[in-house]
Amino acid sequence: MRARVRKFAHVLERLGLAMAGAASGLFVAVHVGSAVSALTSQAFLLIMMLGGAVGFYLGIDTPQLIFHPAAEGTSKRKIDAAELLSAIGTFLASLVAFFSVAVIVLRSELHIGWTMAIMVGWVFGVIMQIVAGTIARRRPSAISPARSRAPQDAYR
Q1: pTM score
Q2: Tens digit of pLDDT for each residue in 104-156?
Q3: 52: left (phi over 0), alpha (psi -120 to 50) or beta
Q4: From residue 127, how far is each of 53, 76, 77, 111, 133 by CA, in Å?
Q5: Within a 10 A sphere around the Cβ of 74, how many other Cβ atoms?
Q6: For 16-20, which contacts have Cβ atoms below 8 Å and span 24 or more sequence positions?
Q7: What is the pLDDT of residues 53-82, one digit of tens each?
Q8: 77 φ, ψ to 5°?
Q9: How far apart are CA 31 and CA 107, in angstroms?
């Protein structure tokens, strides 16, 4: 029973992150669309929202790389690339989304260069999140399937 509740809670958390990413994409799209008339379409808003949802869903809460060089099947690297990409991408996407909201709320008119920097920063941040999530989920697990089931069985 607890395993199902835990899985449900994890899915609910991931959906919340996806909605936060979609909102982030919406804010950036509204700001950029208000400055660049070619980007005022509903398709642009939808693409930005979907990109943010996928980026925040995949790029936040990535499985960590296990660092025990003595054990077989674990990494000998000192840096987890997925974790670093996720952190930088999340920070960058969130920062420029925050700036977009500030510009919208304060009704400021930014130079087109700053608006494009916000757009590029958000796109790069989301791409980093997607790449990080993909890397983290595609690497082989260091825990055998029999050992990974043991904690779940203990909660039943």
Answers
A1: 0.77
A2: 999 988 899 999 999 999 999 999 999 998 888 887 764 434 444 444 444 44
A3: alpha
A4: 12, 26, 23, 25, 10
A5: 15
A6: 17/56, 17/57, 17/60, 17/61, 18/53, 18/54, 18/56, 18/57, 19/53, 20/56
A7: 999 998 887 777 776 655 555 556 677 888
A8: -75, 155
A9: 10
**Angle formed by the axes of helices 2-35 and 112-138, to 10°?**
160
Sign of CA dihedral 102, 85, 60, 83: negative
Which of 67, 55, 50 is closest to 139 using CA atoms? 67
* Residue 55: both structure tokens together: 């980026």
Q: Cα–Cα distance between 129 and 26 in angstroms, integer?
A: 17
